[in-house]
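Predict the 3D structure for this chain.
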Amino acid sequence: MAVLDPPFEPAVSPQPEGSPYRCRNCAGAAARWYAVLPRTDVQEAGNRPYGVASAVRLLGSSLEVEVAEMDEMEAFYQFDRGELRPTGFAVSDVYPALHDRLFRQGRLNHPAAECPGLIGSRVVRIYRNGVWTDFAVRRVSDSRPGPASPAAGRRPD
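Done. Predicted structure below.
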């Protein structure tokens, strides 16, 4: 996720010199602010290289980014709107049950109740003004509807 300065000209992800991911022929400089959200065990179990940010919501003094991790499993990362500092994460209501299904299928080696990424913290990397900083964020209240619910910001099937 990136924040661009007006007039919102093209920008690239911040990469160190010599990085194989550095775009040498792209227009624009590095974004002013850039967030890298963590890859999870669920994404690995589903052979997903990364989650996809599918929605951004303004919720009072917070900004929330919805990330589709696998099928109906979403994570929600909260940021302070003023500082754009990560403050926590939540998961969709179905996430623990689907995580346990992956465990029973042998695709994960632990149930949701013992998942380090659910009971511990996740690291969100932030690039701001030329400096990378890691923020450990903890899980907060979940109560997020699954993707089929109109309250999730999507149309019902």
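The longest strand covers residues 62-70.
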